[in-house]
Specification:
The complex is a heterodimer of chains A (about 110) and B (about 110). In chain A, the strands form 2 sheets. Chain A has a 5-stranded mixed β-sheet with strand order 1-9-8-3-4, with no helix packed on it. A 4-stranded antiparallel β-sheet of chain A has the order 2-7-6-5, with no helix packed on it. Chain A is about 0% helix and about 40% strand. Chain A is globular and about 40 Å long. Chain A is an all-beta fold and about 110 residues long. Helix content of chain B is about 0%, strand content about 55%. In chain B, strands 2, 4, 5, 6, 9, 10 and 11 form a 7-stranded mixed β-sheet that branches. Chain B has a 4-stranded antiparallel β-sheet with strand order 1-3-8-7, with no helix packed on it. In chain B, a hairpin with a 2-residue loop joins strand 5 and strand 6. The termini of chain B are far apart. The interface between A and B is medium-sized, with 25 and 32 residues.
Chain lengths: ~110, ~110
C-alpha cells in the first residue's frame, strides 16, 4: 500500500473552509484515495474517495492533483462537530492487500468558535 | 446507526481469560474487517473475511482468531488475554472484497483487561 503523509494537527475557525492536505507520492495508477474521520472514540466514518477526478458529496470535496501524488480534503463550512482525526488512506488494489485500508496517524482537526 | 452492529459495547475481563467479540455486517455486505485501536498503535488491521473465507491478514496475534459464519456475522476470539490487549476493537463491512464505495464501521467494543 502506498504510504500517506499528513500534518499531525490543524486548526480552523468555525464557518471557514478547512483544507486538509495529504501526500501520497508512491500511489499506483489503480489505487484510490479515501478519506475517513474519527470523532473521539467512535468508529471511523467514511467521507469521500476518488481516483483521478475531483469529487464532491454532501460532506466534503476532494481535490486530487493531476499527477495524483497529493490530495486535499475540503470541508467547505467547518462546524464544531467536525473536530476529529482525519485519515487519508490509499487503498490497496492488488493481491492480499486488495481492499485493506491501512490507517496512518491522521490529522487532528480542531474547529474553534 | 451505521448498520454495522458490534456486541458487547464494553467488556472487562481478567488476564488469561478468553473473550468473543461479535459483529453483524451491514445488510448485503459480504466482507468483514476487524481492526484494533490502542492508544499507542492507532488503528491496526487484523483480518478480513469475505463470504465466509479469510481474505487478508494483518498483524493478528496467534492468540487471536476470527471466523465468518454462513449468515455473514463474524466473531473475533481473543484468548490468553494480556494487559496490552486492552483496546477498542472495530468491525467494518463492505459490499465486495474491495468495497469500492467505502467501508462502514461499527461503534466498536471497548475491551479492558485487568
Amino acid at each position: 500500500d502506498a504510504k500517506t503523509t499528513q500534518p499531525p494537527s490543524m486548526d480552523c475557525a468555525e464557518g471557514r473552509a478547512a483544507n486538509l492536505p495529504c501526500n501520497h507520492s508512491t500511489i499506483s495508477g489503480n489505487e484510490y484515495v479515501y478519506w475517513y474521520r474519527q470523532i473521539h472514540s467512535q468508529g471511523p466514518q467514511y467521507i469521500i474517495h476518488g481516483l483521478k477526478n475531483n469529487e464532491t458529496n454532501e460532506m466534503a470535496s476532494l481535490i486530487i492533483t493531476e499527477d495524483r501524488k497529493s490530495s486535499t480534503l475540503i470541508l467547505p463550512h467547518a462546524t464544531l462537530r467536525d473536530t476529529a482525526v482525519y485519515y487519508c488512506i490509499v487503498r490497496g488494489a492488488g493481491g492480499t492487500s486488495y481492499g485493506k485500508l491501512t490507517f496512518g496517524q491522521g490529522t487532528i482537526l480542531t474547529v474553534h468558535p | 446507526d451505521s448498520g454495522v452492529t458490534q456486541t458487547p459495547k464494553h467488556l472487562i475481563t481478567a488476564t488469561g481469560q478468553r473473550v468473543t467479540l461479535r459483529c453483524s455486517p451491514r445488510s448485503g455486505d459480504l466482507s468483514v474487517y476487524w481492526y484494533q485501536q490502542s492508544l499507542d498503535q492507532g488503528l491496526q488491521f487484523l483480518i478480513q473475511y469475505y463470504n465466509g473465507e479469510e481474505r487478508a491478514k494483518g498483524n493478528i496475534l496467534e492468540r487471536f482468531s476470527a471466523q465468518q459464519f454462513p449468515d455473514l456475522h463474524s466473531e473475533l476470539n481473543l484468548s490468553s488475554l494480556e494487559l496490552g490487549d486492552s483496546a477498542l476493537y472495530f468491525c467494518a463491512s463492505s459490499g465486495a472484497t474491495g468495497g469500492i464505495s467505502g467501508y462502514t464501521f461499527g461503534s466498536g467494543t471497548r475491551l479492558t483487561v485487568v
